[in-house]
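Example record

The entry below shows one chain as it appears in the dataset: sequence first, then structure tokens.
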Amino acid sequence: MKHDIWFNAQHSPVGAFASFTLGCPGAKGGLGLEIGGPADENVYIGLETRGGGSFEALPFFRGSEDDSRRYDVSANTAQEGAEVRTFPRRAITREFGMCADTWRAGDLTLTVHSPVKQVPDPHGASADVLRAALVPAVFCQITVDNTKGRRARRAFFGYAGSDARSAMRRLDDLSRGKFTGVGQGLHTAIVSDSPGVFSGLGFTIGKVLRPDRPENLVFGLGGTGALMVDVPAGGKASYRFAVCFHKAGIVTSGMPCSYLYARWFRDIEAVGGYALEHWSDQVKLGEAADRRIAKARLDDAQRFMLCHAVRSYLGSTELLESGGDPFWVVNEGEYRMMNTFDLTVDHLFFEMAQNPWVVRNQLDWFTRRFQYTDKVRLPGDPKEYPGGISFTHDMGMANLVSRPKYSTYELFGLDGCFSHMTHEQLVNWVCCGTTYVLGTGDQTWLRSNRAVFRACLDSLVRRDHPVAAQRDGVMSADSSRCLGGAEITTYDSLDVSLGQARNNLYLAVKTWAAYVGLRKILGDLDDRRGAARAGDQAARCAATITGHLRTDGFIPAVMGEGNESRIIPAIEGLVFPEVWGMKDALRKQGEFGGLIRALKTHLRTVLVKGTCLFADGGWKLSSTNDNSWLSKIYLCQYVAREVLGFRTDRKADEAHRRWLLDPENAYFAWSDQMVAGKARGSKYYPRGVTAWLWLSE
């Protein structure tokens, strides 16, 4: 896959909250652990010139001051080291896939393999299988073609770590001769077991590549480390490396957790040894995933965006354990919030395809620790009415697990960003739970959560309206947790068209889907009364939405409040009956045919330039706001094509790809919130895996 090549991409193991980020020129990538963006380290990957005496490298570093001057204040350095310059940009090419990212420059080829792997349920899998799935490493290969060379040439792979608390070091001292390596402290390292590879430290990469004496490569003050190999004249050779991460012991506050991988990997040396021993098997996993994506019926822009998004998702994943129980966490990109529920519901489709047990795990943790019960209020009415259960916005932030029943995000007394998302998170639990049950057939889990599903229905109905005769299926009451404010939706940084929860068209269709799901789930539990009640609410909701279709062809973003905004995510909630296989609920002449026809008319009306299309053809989620989220666009494109029968314009895909590759955006790998095509929030983000839905079209 060939594109504009200068963009950062994440290369990440599963469940380690770690990334070897590479792609933007300068010190804009590196080995990052538990951070919300690139590590901003110098990364050195290069080769000696054919003539010898100087070196060329991929441009992933900037000039740095020789740290020896801090010690030798007279600046009488005895040896300046070799010259290291970058390859000419025009001489560098890149091929980018889901798992393999290959760079070529002159006689040097670098491939970084980050396998997309399934992770089995820790409660039933063997230690060997889990070790292979969770090894916190990515796998690299450097190939040097020196067939035209008349002398040996030195290739190198190294970095200068950015953690001021830890020294760079050689791992050779502890590897017992099994491999060579350089790393920083206990947490990051690059290792190799290829014959001829050796390690070195120095103040600069030039001094590592050409030390005044070879014995000085063990220099403990050196802040730059590299692995090197001398490639013989007339030959072509490949060398394998592993980029490793590790963090031992308790890694969270609020609730003590450790990384699950730490059961089998006591330190980074153990990670390196295992990664190299199983290097070929791991690379084959990645190659298989790349072949699958290459065969998928996607256009070039779609394929690029899917690959890019999956990488960023994996970089945010964290598999912890607490008291022996696994705790799956997806961190929210640059914000690092843990299991943000309104992202969980969008990661759902990828996770159900890869690791369905993690969906169950997240739902169980929401029920076990992050469930609460509230009351509700109508606008302008201080009286509180019975509410019900719901779930928090998230489970914590930056490895701080939030206190029970509360998130780190939600504040009180607000009606905009940082207010509560009580209704939406309730809907999200229902939609995720229904998807898990219908996708796996896990009847044991369903029966054990019978009371939760019933409580969710009660809670949804009460949020419709406290008076039964006035219920129309749509949320009318705000949580008492708002303390007089108003609830919001996941679209917290948009205007009222998508931000306000009450009477919101986007949330109403999603609520309809939740009622349809509850009717099925409760019916399967032989709760006929509950199933009938859910079906009645679904019918009311559908009728309300359909009744707001205007003669000029659109449904207002906020119904019944004089709002004129048009929104694309009106159709978003249709994704759930589609993935549940409930085709009857989506037929234009079926039970909810009026709703489906109204939403199709609505989308046809709004999906035009000047309303919900930007000038470049990209999708604009709201006619009254330029903040358009790629993850939601991907999801709505799927619904438009697969449910409503639209043929979407490939110009839109090309526009969305250009947004990601814009020089202002490319540093952040995959980003979500694009304000008129510029990344203004939700950077380095996991949510783009909604694009996984495209594979099922």
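Notes for this example: The CA atoms of residues 146 and 210 lie 20 Å apart. The two ends are 21 Å apart (CA to CA).
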